[in-house]
Amino acid sequence: MDINQKFTKIDDVSQDLLDAFLEPYKENCKYLKKAQFQYPEPSDLPDRSRSKNQGLWFIKADFSIPESCYIADTGHFNSVEFNICYNQLFYILIAYLVANKLLEVMKDWDLEIYKRRQLSDFLIVKFSSNFRKPVNSKNFQGTLSINKFSARSGLIMLKTSCAFYDHNGGWSEGDVTIAILNAKSSQTRSINKNYQL
Length: 197
Known about the structure:
Elements: E1 7-12, H1 15-22, E2 32-40, H2 45-48, E3 57-63, H3 79-99, H4 111-117, E4 122-133, E5 140-152, E6 155-165, E7 171-181
Antiparallel strand pairs: 1-2, 2-3, 3-5, 4-7, 5-6, 6-7
Helix pairs in contact: 1-3
């Protein structure tokens, strides 16, 4: 993932939005501290939609894990923490997109609907990560982008990329595909692993 994108506007995500959508986490698991939504240059958008390395929407955040919530201190950012931080970054990105009506496939959603469905209707379909150099878990940053989206048959599919890094060259990155149950019925729908965006 390329974190050195050019942006036309950077907007701080409000503390109210952070509090509302990190609320499901226990206090010692709220690793995301502050976030900024980043608007890419409009002239880049057609190219971005075709590139796996460039996204349509971006969010960047500061993280800190003073103490692991599940294991003795490993001294570095690990795969479980990667997943937790990805989830928190993703939840806040979606909250911002919904609040500002930026994501066409979720145009009928508002924050109340999202809050009600945040945990039950968002599913990780595909997850991969790699760790190039240990990241200092006490103080690091994360960036997430939505690269592609589609909607059909009561499902919204989002293809995302993320990276976590520190000021000493620590680096980890991943690609995650998310399925959002969007049917009016509450019936759980089977998701084909080979669903193509």
